[in-house]
Every structure is written in structure tokens, then in C-alpha cells.
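Let us begin with a simple case.
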Amino acid sequence: MKADELREAYLAFFESKGCVRRPSDVLVPRWDPSVLFTPAGMNQFKDHFLGACKLEFTRATTCQKCLRTGDIDNVGRTPRHHTFFEMLGNFSFGDYFKREAIHWAWEFLTARTWLNMAPEKLSVTVYRDDDEAYRIWSDEIGVPAERISRMGEDDNFWPASAPSQGPDGVCGPCSEIFFRMPDGSDVEIWNLVFTQFNREGPPPDNLRPLPSRNIDTGMGLERTCAMLQGVESNFHIDILRPIVEAVADVCGRRYEPASDDGRRMRRIADHVRACTFAIHENVLPG
């Protein structure tokens, strides 16, 4: 499945579940002083999650252009890290919650009419205290216990470590879905965040249930494409490999993935892509 096909399939699937298809927000959200670039699909819905605006819809789906620099040292070195990437997402603002989010994620991934991934290649994690999510995965979806892991707040809470370290505010446990690669490694492809608490002060007993529970999910387009296309690196999917090969042509060298030059070419390809989208929104070098 090509990247364009995956993007459209995701949005169409969640439209069929009653979600309103919204366009990607800008990459440079000048209305939001808390970020330089849009880091995630939920960014354009901050006011929706906080109940600070009139809701014209309670379900949404997007493919958001994102730019993050936190992992910049890993770009090109690993097969999964980027600065610019696309995040597929589905959202609920006081509407559907865990059961629907989990069932729909599994349906999209495994149904023959959608991605048709082999269920035995998928595993999941849940927050250590989230018995509700565990039961849905185990009893309703039928994921075997050996493929469900309970993890701590560093791995399966959003924001990470929020219960003990903060910040105060809206937060919740999450459930991550992993795909088993041919080499036996597991790659995270989808994160389902169950925004159900408001953190107030230090622990203990600092997580107050929200009156309106929300869903915020994120699936990496490039990562999922790599799984579907059977390639070992995000940089080798249909929308990125041509850029890497173009870098090799400009440099007058052959692209060899395992070489130091291969790493450098992937990094150049990533940065050229990020700069192109940034320049499109009038972020200029200087």
C-alpha cells in the first residue's frame, strides 16, 4: 500500500465511524505561543479538549503535518526517526471512549477491507493500572495475554510521567500498538491516548476524573507504510526513497543503506523535506 493510499484509507475509515475529516493544521501555529512547530495531530484541537470553544463536532480525523527536533540526533541513524513526518489521528471530544477507540483501531489494522495485517504480528501495551483497557484487549478483541504488556507512567501515560512529575492539567493513560518485524523486533505504529484525568498537585490522589473524557490517537504514516510495504526503514517507503536517491545523485555517490554515507544521505533527505515544508510557511533560513 502506497503512502497516499494509506492516508486516504485511514481518513475514509474514520469518516465511516462518524468522524469529521479535518484538514491538516499549519506547520507553524502562530496562534499558539507554546510551540514553534506543530508537534502532533491534537495541537489544533487544544481548545476542544479543554472545553474552551463551541464544539461544532465531537469526532474528528486528520492527517497532520508535524515537525519535531527532539530526536534530531537520531535522524538517519535509526530507521524510524524524522524531524518532519505525518501523523494520522482520530479524536473524540466527550464522545466515544476506550472501547470504540480500541475496537476501531483493531478493525482498521486487521480487517481484510482495510490494512489486513496479520493479528499475530500485533502486540499492545497498556498503563499498569488500566484494567479497563486490558480487559477490552483481552476479553473483547482476543489478544493473548502474552502479547499484552502493562507498562509504567514513563511509557504508557500522556504526558509521560505526568502522575508523579507533572505538569498539572489534562492527562491520561495510553495504549500502544506494535508490529512484529521479520527480525523479531517490535515497532510502535499507533498510540491511543485516553484523556480522562486532570492532574492537580503532587501525588498521591492527584488524578481527578474529567467530566468529559476524550480520545487522542496518533499513527505514524511513514512507520506504518514501512510495515505495509515490507521495507526495513521508513526512508525506503515510496515517498521517501526517491528523495534519498536524489541526494545520492547530487552527491555523485551510490546509496548504500548500511554505510556512513547512507546515514548522511538519509539525514539530508529528512532535513530537505522538513525545510521545504517550513519554507512553504515562510520560515526562511537566516
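The second case is a distinct protein. As before, the sequence precedes its C-alpha cells.
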Amino acid sequence: MEIEVLGPLAAAHNGTSFAPTAGKPRTVLAMLALHAGSVVAVDQLITELWPHGRPRSAKTIVQTYILSLRNRIARCRPNGDSSRAAAKGLLATLPGGYQLNAPEARIDVVQFEKFACAGHRAREIGDFIAASRAFSDALTLWRGGALMDVQRGPHLDVDVQRLEEARLNVLDCRIDADLRLGRHHELLGELSALVSQYRTHEGLCAHLMLALYRSGRRDAAVNAYGKLHTCLIGELGLEPSAPLRRLHRTMLASGRDTQDLDTSWHEATTEGRHRIVTGDFVRGR
């Protein structure tokens, strides 16, 4: 069984898709897929499907969706009764709810988390080549916004927000590793696009400032800070954080030791991971 949630929802068994096309059954599958290996309570499914009031037959309708999913899984196998029994094992009824049993190696979100953890471990010991590679492997699993084609209720909204935050964190850490490896020239285009998307993300702005400065474009680095300052003041009434202001001052002071610059950048990006404010959402990691 293969499950993909980091983009459009996809689910296949023996190479055949069993993902339904109707909205509510897809929501049920998404809930089960995101929590594969754990029981999803019937009440959680009902709240997700009908957040503004459940119908009287809600439990029966959920049972119907589960039966339909099992039938779709069974059709992916060729052996009649044994296929139906296997489908019950893969989508099990347990006290209080249902559990989708899929191998962890075939669930993209589990693999994303494993690669991310490997990247963080490598980064902690200073192996930035391995960290960059692991973070890159994690990011390649994304095919778009998480569950971008699924109708979401309150539970999936929280799950998707968590996943998107994790994606941005991994992206931030991969760029950090690449900058430490001296890849500032290669990062300029990507960072410029990201800073345009996340206009008040201080960590990404600090990365762009450093990449520009190291590429001999101190004026552009200072200008990037100015744009962030304007956005923060104009949209949110906030000043840039103290570490980012220090990075800006360090860049203005020509002839400063590069160690001062690296220290200021490190402080600014660390602070930026805890103080992320954008025009579209507020994040705290």
C-alpha cells in the first residue's frame, strides 16, 4: 500500500489506486492516511465531515464510507474472499474507530519526517553536506500543498497547518546548511522568490541578506532589510527583531570582521525561526 498526502491525496495498493473521487469519502481516507497505524475515532471523523452539525445518521454514513473504501482496496487484489479479508486487515475496525495499516516506508509524510530528522541530526554535529542532502530529500516528497484536493474540516486544517510549518522549517534549515557550505550564488534566485512570498519572514530575509552580501551586493542586502522593515511596520506595526537589526548594522559597517557578520546572521536566523509573521498567516515553531 502506498499513501501520499504531501500534495494531492493519492492511495494505491498493488499498483492500483483506491482513492475515491467523491468529496466526503476522500476526507475520510485523508484522516485515516494522516494517522496511519493509529485509531481515528468515529467522533473525529464525524466532526471532520460535518463541522457545523452532524446528521442523525452520521455514524451509519461513516460506516458506509469505510465499507466503500474496503471494497475499493479489495478490488486491488485478485483473490475474492481472501481479498475482502485482507482489506479488513488493512482498514481495521477497532474499539472506538478505524485504523489504516500501511507500511511506514510507503507513506510520504512518514518518510518526510525521517529525512527531516536525519537532516537535523547531521546539522547538530556540523555535517552540513549530509544535512543539506537529507533536507533536500525531504522536500522532494512534496508535490504541492498538503491534501490540496481534499475538503478539510477542523482536524485536517490543524494537520495541514502543522505539515506546512514543518515544510517551511525544513526549507529554512536546508538553506541554512547550503549557506554554510558557501552556496550563496546558487541560492539567490530561490531566496528572492521566497522572500517575495513570505514578505515578513525574518529568517528567510536574513538568509537573503547574507547571500547578497557574500555575492558582493551589499547595497541589495541592505535594501532587502529595508523592504522587510517597511512591511513589518506598515502591515503589523512591528520592528525587526534585535538580531536582524544587528545583522543590518554589521553590513552597514564596512570592514567589519566576517566573524561578526556570521555571528549576527546566526542570531538573526535563530530568532527568525521563533518569530515568523507573514501577511497570510502567523507561525510559531
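The beta strands are 2-4, 10-13, 16-17, 40-41, 91-94, 97-100, 276-277, 282-283. The first helix runs from residue 23 to 34.
Keep these points in mind for the review questions at the end of the chapter.
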